């Protein structure tokens, strides 16, 4: 228990909570702005300046103008976010203030005991797992964990798991089955780590084994794509009975930059590749690959961690009863049919 508390305290210390309720360092909160967010931010800064002026000078007649500008900012935000391109959604999925797995466990779990190590090589800090309780329901939670700032990103390997990470997941999947615990996974990775050491230790085998074990796991599995769902590194934790994506998350066999490098010999063509890949939540729901989309707060999940966590928690509690009422045989048959349907197509 002490080691778990220490890990969470370290994570919290490295990711202080900003005033808007989002967990992230103040430097990110104040300096990181996406290009299409700038007009909204500039208008909101003017509103803040007018509020400060009204409070300091007692100029009550500014209230009407502030209200008018606030409505204008709301309309502008709605207009900008209703017309996002696929590449802009990729940028939102990678936003450094976006909530990560431990941000969700902190908010939705009554308790969370992190478990470590694959019993073969080492612990992988890019993939966190543990036994949790949500409103009296015990379950196993696992997910990719990115860092904020250079130091923590190195510690978390930028959310890219090594083979020992997936072997840790496999070990805990077996534990979940033994104790009849439903499994919830959070996907947020550019992909599995492609380094030489990872390949030497059997990266491909570890991913394949994870796919195999999840396909035949005899307890319900719910997956949430909360940011980037990249390549086999994401798929290794997302063979599930229900797959949900956050509104501005992405899920794809390859990153737009990687696709552009292969197809166009130019990573700078990533926006064009993103359009071709059809990697957004809307695309994947239309293709029948996911089961639902979780709307994000105005401006994206990074603007309000508490609100998006509450929506994820509600979806977990809503989905579990139906899955847990199924017999093991029916659960596995439905899971297998779900993946057999993916890839079917008709030619006219």
Question: Care to describe what's here?
Answer:
By secondary structure, the chain is α/β, with parallel strands linked by helices. The chain has two domains: 33-84; 95-341, Alpha-Beta Complex (2-enoyl-CoA Hydratase, Chain A, domain 1), CATH 3.90.226. It is built from 16 helices and eight strands. Strands 1, 2, 3, 4, 5, 6, 7 and 8 form an eight-stranded mixed sheet that branches. β2 and β3 (137-144) form a beta hairpin. The longest helix is centred in the last third of the chain and has 21 residues, at 305-325.
Question: Main traits of this protein?
Answer:
2-enoyl-CoA Hydratase, Chain A, domain 1; disordered N terminus; 348 residues; 8 strands; eight-stranded mixed beta sheet; single chain; 16 helices; globular; alpha/beta; 2 domains
What amount of the residues lies in strands? Answer: 5-15%
Amount of helix: 40-55%
Helix segment tally: 16
CATH architecture name of the largest domain: Alpha-Beta Complex
Q: Report the span from N to C terminus.
A: 60 Å
Look at the structure and name the CATH superfamily of the largest domain.
2-enoyl-CoA Hydratase, Chain A, domain 1
* Largest sheet features: 8 strands, mixed
Count of structural domains: 2
Mean pLDDT: 88
Show unreliable segments: 1-30
**Order of secondary-structure elements:** HHHHHHEEEHHEHHEHEEHHHEHH
Annotated CATH topology of the largest domain: 2-enoyl-CoA Hydratase, Chain A, domain 1
Q: Which structural category do the helix and sheet elements fall into?
A: alpha/beta
The number of strands is 8
Q: Report the CATH C-level class of the largest domain.
A: Alpha Beta
């Amino acid at each position: 228990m002490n080691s778990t508390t220490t890990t969470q305290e370290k994570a919290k210390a490295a990711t202080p909570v900003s005033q808007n309720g989002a967990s992230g360092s103040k430097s990110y909160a104040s300096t990181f702005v996406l290009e299409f967010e700038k007009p909204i931010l500039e208008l909101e800064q003017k509103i803040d300046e007018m509020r400060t002026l009204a409070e300091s000078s007692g100029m009550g007649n500014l209230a009407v103008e502030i209200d008018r500008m606030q409505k204008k900012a709301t309309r502008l935000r709605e207009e900008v976010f209703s017309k996002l391109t696929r590449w802009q959604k990729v940028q939102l999925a990678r936003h450094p203030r976006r909530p990560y797995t431990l941000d969700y466990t902190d908010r939705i779990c009554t308790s969370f005991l992190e478990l470590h190590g694959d019993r073969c090589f080492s612990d992988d800090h890019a993939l966190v797992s543990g036994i949790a309780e949500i409103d009296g329901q015990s379950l196993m939670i696992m997910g990719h964990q990115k860092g904020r700032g250079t130091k923590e990103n190195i510690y978390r390997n930028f959310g890219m798991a090594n083979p020992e990470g997936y072997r840790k997941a496999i070990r805990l999947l077996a534990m979940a089955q033994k104790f009849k615990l439903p499994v919830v996974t959070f996907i947020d990775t550019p992909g599995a780590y492609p380094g030489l050491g990872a390949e030497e230790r059997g990266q491909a085998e570890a991913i394949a084994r994870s796919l195999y074990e999840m396909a035949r796991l005899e307890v319900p599995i719910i997956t949430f794509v909360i940011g980037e769902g990249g390549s086999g590194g994401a798929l290794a934790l997302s063979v599930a009975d229900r797959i949900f994506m956050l509104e501005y998350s992405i899920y794809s066999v390859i990153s737009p930059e990687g696709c552009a490098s292969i197809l166009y010999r130019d990573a700078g063509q990533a926006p064009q590749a993103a359009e071709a890949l059809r990697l957004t939540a809307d695309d994947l729901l239309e293709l029948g690959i996911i089961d639902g989309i979780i709307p994000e707060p105005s401006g994206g999940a990074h603007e309000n961690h508490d609100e998006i966590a509450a929506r994820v928690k509600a979806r977990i509690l809503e989905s579990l009863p139906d899955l847990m009422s199924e017999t093991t045989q029916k659960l596995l048959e439905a899971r297998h049919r779900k993946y057999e349907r993916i890839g079917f197509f008709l030619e006219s």
